[in-house]
Design brief:
The chain has 12 helices and 2 strands; from the N terminus they run ααααββαααααααα. The protein has 358 residues and is an all-alpha fold. The chain has one domain. Strands 1-2 form a two-stranded antiparallel sheet. Helix 1 packs antiparallel against helix 2 and helix 2 crosses helix 7. The protein is globular, with a radius of gyration of 20 Å. The two termini are 24 Å apart.
Length: 358
């Protein structure tokens, strides 16, 4: 087959979104600063963060906009049709971004560190995720494949079939886990954005590989039964490009923060892409840094309750523990990026090893 146009579409998607994010972010910074929409810093957090008070937040608006511009402009230029799978993931991104935007807006409007309470935020995320899960089980193509499979997946679909209700519940759990995982990771300048670039880049490779080895292109025992892997790769490229362009301004010392509108949207994108590419459990490795940081919070809370007030870490999430140990912010971010890259490398290695072994 001719790979020229599909590869061109991926490059255009990533390049356009990166340029849009790079040039649009300063304009958003100026707008937010003029309106006084700055970050509210928790008093119980590391004291070194107090200098960040007032830094413009809600930069996730640029991330979402850049992703949409990159993805749709790429399709407009190449003339290739959009797919249901990618559009559903985009719907998930926008829906979760809206929940995060409400949370951010309440924070800056009321000038306090708490926006939506935990139940309100989780409910909003669950509703959006549930709608994505239900819609993803619809729209079969000519071969009967739907954007979301009824089978649990690791590196590809397994033989474990779930009921419709179980699939939707599982999708909700995945989306809540990843969106809140990215939200917890977004505590240091550039940390979550840089890690997200790596994971989205890995999804580009996985999507392209699954398309080349799909049952429609290369039928056989090893083929992948995935609905729209190549277009998901185009979307992953748009997300990676958007994060890359935004990271220029989000790296230490950050000129802008992504806010919940960005972290919830990016986390939802990770889950949505993993689900549509049939690599659900592989996301644990690819997004290992997000898993590690989320686990540190869970461990801290559980141990605090069990031990009657004792702590495992000086502070959770994990990155703040190392801050209180005296590590510099940039040092923590770089070392955590190394951890993220090792998780991505391990995930891609196992993905390919599974194909070879099968």
């Amino acid at each position: 087959m001719d790979w020229g146009e599909p590869v061109r579409g991926i490059l255009l998607s990533g390049g356009i979104s990166a340029l849009f994010a790079f040039f649009a972010t300063p304009a958003l910074i100026r707008f937010l600063a003029k309106k006084g929409y700055g970050q509210i810093i928790r008093d119980d957090g590391p004291t070194s963060h107090h200098v960040k008070r007032g830094t413009p937040t809600m930069g996730g608006l640029v991330l979402i906009a850049a992703t949409l511009v990159g993805y749709f402009t790429s399709h407009l230029i190449t003339g290739i049709s959009t797919t249901t799978s990618a559009l559903l993931v985009i719907g998930l991104i926008v829906g979760l971004g809206f929940v995060g935007f409400i949370d951010d807006w309440l924070k800056v409007a009321k000038q306090r560190s708490l926006g939506l309470n935990a139940k309100q935020k989780l409910l909003g995320q669950a509703v959006v995720a549930g709608a994505f899960g239900y819609a993803g089980l619809q729209f079969p193509d000519q071969t009967g494949l739907t954007p979301i499979s009824s089978y649990l997946s690791t590196f590809r679909d397994t033989s474990i079939k779930l009921s419709i209700a179980a699939v939707i519940i599982w999708v909700i759990i995945m989306v809540l886990g990843t969106s809140n995982g990215v939200n917890l990771t977004d505590g240091l300048d550039g940390l979550a954005t840089g890690a997200a670039v790596m994971v989205f880049t890995s999804f580009i490779l996985i999507g392209v590989w699954e398309f080349g080895q799909s049952c429609a292109v290369s039928p056989g025992a090893k083929c992948y039964a995935v609905r729209d892997p190549l277009d998901i790769a185009v979307l992953a490229a748009a997300l990676a490009g958007a994060c890359g362009g935004f990271l220029w301004w989000n790296a230490s010392p950050a000129k802008i923060f992504m806010g919940d509108v960005g972290s919830l949207a990016l986390g939802g994108a990770l889950a949505g892409i993993a689900i549509t590419l049939r690599t659900q459990l592989l996301l644990v490795l690819l997004g290992f840094l997000f898993v590690l940081i989320t686990a540190s919070v869970i461990i801290q809370v559980l141990f605090f309750k069990i031990s009657g007030g004792k702590r495992v870490f000086k502070m959770a999430p994990l990155q703040h523990h190392f801050e209180l140990m005296g590590w510099g912010e940039v040092t923590i971010v770089i070392r955590f990026w190394i951890i993220a890259s090792l998780g991505v490398a391990a995930g891609l290695g196992l993905f390919y090893a599974q194909w070879v072994a099968s």
